[in-house]
Amino acid sequence: MEDGLIYTNIKFLSKVGDKRAALLQKEAGIVSYKDLLYYFPYRYIDRSQYVKISEINSDKVYIQIRGKVVDKQTVSNGKSKRLVVGFADDTGRIELIYFSGLKWIYDKLNIGQQYVVFGKPSMFNNGFNFVHPETELLSVYTSMHDTEFLPLYNTTEKMKNSFLSSRAMASLTLTLIRQMHGHISETLPEYIVNHYKLISLQQALENIHYPQNMQMLAKAQYRLKFEELFFMQLVHQMQKTYRKVKSDGFVMAKVGDKFNDFYNKNLPFPLTDAQKRVIKEIRSDMRSGRQMNRLLQGDVGSGKTLVALMCMLIAVDNGYQCALVAPTEILAKQHCNSLTEFLKGLNVQVALLTSEIKGKARKNLLSNLQEGAIDILVGTHAVLESAVQFANLGFAVIDEQHRFGVEQRRKMWEKSKGRLPHILVMTATPIPRTLAMTVYGDLDCSVIDQLPPGRKPVSTVHLTDASILKVYDFMRTQIAQGRQIYVVYPLIEESEKLDLKDLNDGYDHIVQQFPLPDYQISIVHGKMKSEQKEYEMERFVKGITNIMVSTTVIEVGVNVPNASVMVIQNAERFGLSQLHQLRGRVGRGSDKSYCILMTKDNLSQDSKRRIEIMCQTNDGFVLAQEDLALRGPGDIAGTQQSGVLDLKIADIVKDEPLVRTARDLAQFVLDKDPMLQDENNRLLKQYITAHKVITDYSEIS
Ligand code: ADP
Ligand code: MG
Predict the structure, then answer these.
(1) How far, in Å, CA of 456 to CA of 451, rounded?
(2) 8, 205, 390, 604: least CB-packed within 10 angstroms?
(3) Cis peptide before 327 (omega within 30 of 0)
(4) Is 267 in the pocket of ligand 1 (CB under 6 A)?
(5) pLDDT in tens, 257-290
């Protein structure tokens, strides 16, 4: 049954209206009935189960209690006011604490009346209380719903303040589900529904909000995850096929003098097996006649730049220009220097373009580029500006892609004439296979899973702030041996001022501990002018300064092999992948290297786990897996802004087997019916059309 009801604007739902509709859209992205149906609860409360106040023993789970309000008072200490409500059942008393909406809540909760209170208890003075729990009159609550489970929804502060609490959302979804009954049409073909024994979409959406029982909840979740992952895979695979078939690429078949001369004369060390394998994979793309879009993953220090260079030489040998784009000026400069060094005596023209190159120099550079006199242009995002025109760009490398969105990749595509250049995206952010497959389904993947020989794992230790003097002593012995040291402070946007203060205080402290003339110290942070940053960085790179005090601006790619110690302050405030990136700055030379994670005394469970695992392993892939499990995939840098990982219910880590099932099914369906013309696949075709996936395979046979 085709039916447009599901696309109705949410403002028309009973009890919504214009004002709440605007808020729902702004705060939760809910525009239509459909959006609300797909706004899934994050958990459920079993309505038949009440916990006794005396039995509350954990701050980990959501519970509901039943009892009476016994007293209430507004307490004020200085600026902050709060409302403290005493609540009791026949086993004890507990306090409900409110910091905002005091008057409204004060009036709403009447002494002597029976309520249901739900929320997650908080630990307080060896006991428990509730902070901003939701409440409902017991009489209303017990007469309200016809299901056992009550859904809980994420809501923002703003929503709560406008009476769109989780409870209010629950009553909206209940209204909606009743109204939509019989109007939700199936999205998956019957043969798939039958084969995988899925419940209908109608049943799934009803049960995901108001499950009849646990079994139905499980079935609803399975059905919705299945659908989400399957459509994602279907779209990716169709786009990939499209690109492969449709996008003619420059053919770069020959391996010429430049590549061979480099390989035979300049290459200072043997390639690792992983590097060789990856170069082969890229080469076979380059001569295939199809345009390459490849993701090159490799842990920090695995030698991605060299791989990129050798592939660029093949492109140059075939008469094409190349671009190498880096996320920061410092990195672009470093790349330019190291390429120039590698290519000594080989007659390959390398040039650097950053926003610092201005005026005449810039004009000359651009005209050389346009005349084809430059073989490899290294630069920052300045390379993407439309004024930058190549004679014949054939191969583009984008380094550290988590700083680059899909949009940038597209700009790069537009730089070459007629055909798209081959694109190699390099990242040190180790993306677990399933995630790579799902997020980058439209890219092919190569992995360098091996470090060059002789690298020693970085010893990582955890110390609390009380040990700082010991750390300074250790730093002095390392400096005495000629080594250099990084000291890094976090910089988190919300509290930038405070962080900067941390950094400056830390710097002052270190200057005191390491006075001139025996010690030289650099400081770099994001708020400095870029010339000043460069100057400080340069002094450290050249070994003039012993210590580099900085924020995470040095996180990506910088290479100072003589640096052997990385001290990370407030390490509990960094994510795992960031810690790993930072640690990757040391251990690049032949010396034994150290990473010292400094934290405060009391750590949350999650922070403790992060620090522990950092001390246990140097393996980026293990860390990435752990990071995902700890933080959820939404936090992985780069995936959020690109919008590819817009999953509502599936969890790439926990649902890995289902990801594989979905991929295989998509493959199976498309193998048999690549254009989805079969009547059995009508619903799939509909989905693909609605989502504007390009399916114009008209040039295929
Ligand atoms: P990343 O993958 O982090 O970008 P780089 O390309 O910067 O790593 O390489 C790190 C260092 O390792 C560089 O100094 C590079 O010259 C060196 N290197 C690269 N490949 C090899 C190899 N096969 N053997 C020894 N050293 C290598
Ligand atoms: Mg690199």
Answers:
(1) 10
(2) 604
(3) no
(4) no
(5) 999 999 999 999 999 999 999 999 999 999 998 8
- Of ligand 1's atoms, which has the minimum distance to the CA of residue 561? 14
Query: Is 408 close to ligand 1, i.e. is its CB under 6 Å away?
Result: no
d(CA 681, CA 479): 68
List the structure tokens of 553: 């601006």
Pocket flag, ligand 1, residue 559 (CB < 6 Å): yes
**292 Cβ partners below 8 Å, 6+ apart?**
249, 282, 285, 286, 422, 423, 424, 444
DSSP 447-512: EE--PPTTPPPPEEEEEEGGGHHHHHHHHHHHHHTT-EEEEE----GGGHHHHHHHHHHHHHHHHH
Reduced to 3 states (helix: H, G, I; strand: E, B; else coil), residue 294 is strand
Q: For the residues of 56-93, what is the DSSP string, one character each? A: ---SSS-EEEEEEEEEEEEEEETTEEEEEEEEEETTEE
**Alpha carbon distance 81, 74 (integer Å):** 7
Tens digit of each residue's pLDDT (9 = 90 or more) over 189-198: 999 999 999 9
Distances (CA, A) of 8 to 24, 25, 26, 34, 40: 14, 14, 17, 8, 18
* Ligand 1 binding pocket includes 155 (Cβ within 6 Å): no
Tell me, in angstroms, the distance from the centre of ligand 1 to residue 296's CA: 14
Angle between helices 304-317 and 273-286 (to 10 degrees): 30
Instruction: For residue 503, give the DSSP letter.
Output: H
- For ligand 1, is residue 7 a contact (CB within 6 Å)? no
Give the environment of ion ligand 2: residues with CB less than 5 A: 557
Q: Is 674 helix (H, G, I), strand (E, B) or coil?
A: coil
| C-alpha 634 to ligand 1 mean position (Å) | 30
Smallest CA-to-CA distance from 200 within 222, 179, 171, 178 is with 222
Cα Rg of the chain, angstroms: 30
Residue of minimum CA distance from atom 15 in ligand 1: 303
Query: What CA–CA distance (Å, rounded) separates 535 from 442?
Result: 40
Write down all domains in the chain, each with its CATH number in brackets.
48-146 (2.40.50.140), 268-286+302-427 (3.40.50.300), 459-617 (3.40.50.300)
**Residues 6+ positions from 575 with CB-CB distance below 8 Å:** 610, 627, 631, 635
DSSP state of 271: P
Maximum Cα–Cα distance for the chain, whole Å?
Answer: 91
Kindly state the tokens that stand for 571.
């390490």
Asked whether 579 and 488 are in contact (CB, 8 A), the reply is no
Whether pLDDT at 640 is above 50: no
Cite the DSSP H helix spans in 346-432.
359-371, 406-413
CA 527-532-535 angle, to 5 degrees, is: 135
Which pLDDT tens digit goes with each residue over 197-228? Answer: 999 999 999 999 999 888 999 999 999 999 99
Is there an atom of ligand 1 within 6 Å of 300 CB?
yes
